[in-house]
Amino acid sequence: MEYVNELDTISARAAQKDAALKVHRLTFMEATMMVVGSTIGSGVLGLAFASRNAGWPVLLTWLVVAGFFSIISMLYVAEATLRTTKPLQLSGLAEKYVGKIGSWLIFFSVGATSFCSLIAYTSGCGRILSEFFGISLEMASCLFALGATSVVWLGLKATGVAEKYLSSGMTAMLILLVGASLFSARVPVADILYAHWTYAVPVFNIAVFCYAVQYIVPEISRGFTHDPGKIVPSILAGAGISFVILALVPLAVFLMLPVDEISEVASLSWGRALGSPVFFVIVNAFAFCAMLTSFWAIAESFLTNMIDRLGFKSETDIRTRAGCLAFIVIPPVLLAYSGLVGFVNAIFSAGTFGGIIMSILPVFMLRSARKHGDHAPCWRCGWIAHPIMQFLVVVLFASAGIYAIFSLCGWLPAAW
Asked: Any stretches that span the bilayer, and where are they (predicted)?
């Protein structure tokens, strides 16, 4: 990776009076926590359940591999945005650099990831609210969706500020919970170091889902038109914090619970295992915050992708914003309490059909942006954009997609 002299700045985007997506400044902490909030959602709660057959060492291996190559893919998107004058979302960048087919593929992948994720978040948070307040899952899901959507309605800046405070609090809760789990572990460390590689590849797809947040990069770029040099550091900082959380939460769950006691939404069983009612509340508060922050980031990004891809005039138009948010939020709420979609299966599907497309297409977007971009960027990918690295990105994620299709067709054993 390398920096070069800036011939033009992204601040030119603000001068694009006809742009549908408007510029809203973010701070470094807000942008970093948007990456954390996007990454730490339902995936972190499903990791322990999804990897219980494979084992924590297998999960850790895939978190490193998937994280490394997913971050490379994110940085490809970052360079493409830095080469583009007009503020565009991921689907808009794809249309500019790989054509309409690529744009619709990206739009599908963002939509698939968003819907599957929002189903999981609504279902997971609905279960937590239902458990705490003794209300029906249907009512709990609706209350969660209504409250979460109100922040997205206020726009990118409000989402960034909310992400900063809630993600910071979530990180503090995690430190407390992991410390308590290590101190009062019920399962010996030796008993959680098993590795069954037969179940490894499906766990990789879950890891891909956790890191499949390429859609947040254009949002961060839009928030740093005044200081584009902070785009890449904020992505790397957010990814680093996310890796630590993704590794520690399943470890703490494995230390507290035998394999057969781990539930799909791990917070419920993890909280009970810690014993104290206070820890039970904190665990579920952490889980709730994790899903809420991810809900905000994904809904905001899908909203701007819809406006960009479908050619709406402006994201500030009230009717456009209301219609798009209704389309984004209402179907996942209906599916979440219908019982038709399983929590972990929703994550698996999102990782398969969304994350893999979003991880591969940035390779071709970067190649085209280097030939047809609007101006030279203030930052370039350097060695991570070497043809061998691009080839590895494509092969790795394409192979995972092929495996997932075979598994969904019933030709391979289930992982969980």
From this structure: 31-50, 56-77, 97-120, 132-156, 168-187, 193-213, 234-257, 277-299, 320-340, 346-366, 387-414
Which element (helix H / strand E) includes 79?
Answer: helix 56-82
User: Which superfamily, per CATH, for 25-408?
Assistant: Amino acid/polyamine transporter I (1.20.1740.10)
Closest by CA to 320, choosing from 329, 307, 331, is: 307
Neighbours of 287 (CB within 10 A): 27
Token pair, residue 87, equals 């503020």
Is the full-model pTM beyond 0.90?
Answer: no
For 199-214, what is each residue's pLDDT tens digit?
Answer: 887 788 778 778 878 8
Task: State how far the alpha carbon of 338 is from the alpha carbons of 110, 123, 206, in Å.
Answer: 23, 10, 23
Could you give the C-alpha distances from 329 to 15, 142, 291, 339, in angstroms and in order? Answer: 32, 10, 14, 17
User: For 143-170, how does the pLDDT look when each residue is reduced to its tens digit (9 = 90+)?
Assistant: 888 888 988 888 777 888 888 888 888 8
Confidence of residue 81 (pLDDT cuts 50, 70, 90): very high
Characterize 182-197 residue by residue with b for buried, 16 or more Cβ atoms within 10 angstroms of its Cβ, and e for exposed. eeebebeeeebeeeee
Provide the token pair at 293: 């922050």
b/e 55-91 (16+ beta carbons within 10 angstroms → b) = bbebbbbbbeebbbbbbbbbbbbbbbbbbbbbbbbbb
Contacts of 339 (CB under 8 A, 6+ apart): none
Scanning 134-155, the segments in alpha helix (DSSP H) are 137-153
Residue with tokens 């969980």: 416
